[in-house]
Amino acid sequence: MGMQALYTAASGMKALDFKLNVVANNLANVETVGFKRSRVNFEDLYYQTIEEPGERTPLDFPKPVGKQVGLGVQVSDTQLNFQQGPLDTTNLPLDLAIQGEGLFQVMSVVNGQQQICYTRAGNFGRNANGDITLLNSVGSQLEPTINIPQDAIDIVIGASGLVQVRVQGATQLSDLGQIQLARFINNPGLKQIGQNLYIETDASGPPILANPTQDGMGEIQQGQLELSNTDPVRELVELIRTQRGFELNSQTIQASDQLLQTIVNLRRF
Fold it and tell me: If you average pLDDT over residues 202-226, what whole number do you get?
């Protein structure tokens, strides 16, 4: 008696501690370009069935309800929210935002090997060779590679992803390359690896590639950045709810402990 309540409340505290970590990460990345917030999903645990619903009564009628006691809660998964974040105008020529569906493709190093990764961050620059590169801690290079000449004075990137430049001495723009986007049947199935990057998994399915504005892809907005879609007010509300839930479960443990003490003290009478 009371022992089951202890374990049940403990499972609630453990699950809410996990949610607290996720909410803290959402808030920590409120200024991270292209960041997508995560939501924690819960599920109830196995139920102890004391009496099956529909059991026959002495009058041979089925009981409308049974007797079941749940054994707590656990985290089922964390779900990425790919809702569009707000756009911030920077007017920098290599700051790019995707308005709509799609992710940029970049070449990065994962577990010591080069691999195509995906990102919604669009804070690009040029590396020492002039290649367009994501300004993250590992310098992930845009795929397909687009090289900006050293003497380029104007960089124009259209909504369809066509990259054009005007070099010194020229009067017209010349084409350099085409930005290609990727999308997935199940975007939340992508795996987060840090540095604003995702990699595909069996859950996400293979990438579907297309140019911006084609086949359901969004359009490129030059001179803008997509900000984090974390809503600070909502996360603070979730933080308070998590704290209150943790406190309620701790009170359940205290009540169960007091009940067990009362039972132990019965032998004194």
Answer: 96
